[in-house]
Specification:
DNA-binding, 6-stranded mixed beta sheet, Rossmann fold, 434 Repressor (Amino-terminal Domain), alpha/beta, 4-stranded parallel beta sheet, 15 helices
Length: 351
């Protein structure tokens, strides 16, 4: 195809924008595959690109805008946890779906310790990636603040607090927990134990708050003997369930704040001779493949992890496109977007 720019030279991005009747930033969004463009606008830009014979100069564009055409997914957790928990595979799968029609490469990295985070910070400071998706961040983790200081477009999976300055995508942990407890109460359960997640994770804290508030709404007194804190793993689910049975042998229901912890709790309950659901009802959180394959099937709060991952990537593409167009990011404007996706209680045989 012959380029039709002025005097036979390569057509420019500005000429494409003028031909399509849109702004330069909109053309950049279309070329970079951002989903935040209407089909009508996308068609107009693509028609202008075809008519002018515009070919993006990827190397020049990357150099001029410090673009690397790559996005980093950072998980500040041990690799063993990443590969054992369905939550992470769902999130990354959703990210992959959002990036499938773009030219962006996806880099997965783990950064648990201080040394790893120092090395990663130096890497990011050299503009090796265009944006970051931070998955599973703890309130006391300094990595998110480092990303803020570096001014790299970043989206995190759930805020660290109610005042989170970075854009985030989360599930409605609070209402999800309330629906789990309300369901158990509707089944006639009154001594409902909680195996909670780490309270330095805002989402886990919200699940605990939902449990407490729903008990109060149903007229059931809070009993600290019925609450144990864990780390979302199967092993800790086993340990905490054993402790709960010792402290409160009369418990008749358990709400475990992850399916993995519910799986560990189930093993201990069975070893103790407790029938599920006849003696003890059991509810998890995630609605992962674990819930569907347990016997009996595990009642669980579904959080749409794949949709969360996809929404995170789309939000990040918007932040990157704004940066490429010279616009202030949502963080710099002081108006970061926080998306909260709904949960759904999926009832199975365990309750």
């Amino acid at each position: 195809m012959t380029a039709h720019g002025t005097h036979g030279r390569r057509p420019t991005l500005e000429e494409v924008a003028a031909r399509a009747g849109v702004g330069r930033g909109t053309v950049s969004r279309v070329i970079n595959g951002s989903p935040r463009v209407s089909e009508q606008t996308r068609a107009a830009v693509e028609e202008a690109v075809a008519e002018l014979g515009y070919v993006p100069n990827t190397a020049a564009r990357a150099l001029a805008a410090n673009r690397s055409d790559s996005i980093a997914v950072i998980v500040p957790e041990a690799e063993s946890r990443f590969f054992s928990e369905p939550y992470f595979s769902g999130m990354v799968g959703g990210v992959g779906l959002a990036l499938a029609d773009t030219n962006l490469q996806l880099l997965l990295t783990f950064a648990r310790g201080e040394r790893e985070q120092d090395r990663l910070t130096a890497y990011l400071a050299a503009h090796r990636v265009d944006g970051v998706l931070l998955i599973s961040v703890h309130a006391d983790d300094p990595l998110a603040d480092r990303l803020l200081q570096l001014d790299i477009p970043t989206v995190i999976s759930g805020p660290r607090s109610a005042d989170e300055p970075l854009p985030s995508v989360d599930t409605d942990n609070y209402e999800g927990a309330r629906s789990a407890v309300a369901h158990l109460v509707s089944r006639g359960r009154r001594s409902i134990a909680l195996i909670a997640g780490p309270q330095n994770v805002y989402g886990a804290e919200r699940r605990t708050a939902g449990y407490v508030d729903q008990l109060a709404a149903d007229g059931i007194a809070y009993d600290e003997k019925l609450v144990a804190y864990a780390d979302f793993t199967e092993e800790m689910g086993r340990r905490r369930m054993a402790e709960l049975l010792e402290r409160a042998p009369g418990l008749d229901a358990v709400f475990a704040c992850s399916d993995l912890m519910a799986s560990g709790a189930r093993q201990v309950l069975r070893e103790a001779g407790r029938r599920i659901p006849q003696d003890v009802s059991l509810v998890g959180f995630d609605d992962s493949v674990i819930a569907r394959h347990m016997e009996p099937g595990l009642t669980s709060v579904r959080q749409p992890t794949r949709d969360m991952g996809r929404a995170m990537a789309e939000l990040l593409l918007d932040e990157i496109a704004d940066a490429a167009a010279g616009k202030r990011s949502s963080v710099r404007r002081g108006t970061p977007r926080h998306l909260v996706l709904p949960t759904e209680l999926v009832v199975r045989g365990s309750s």
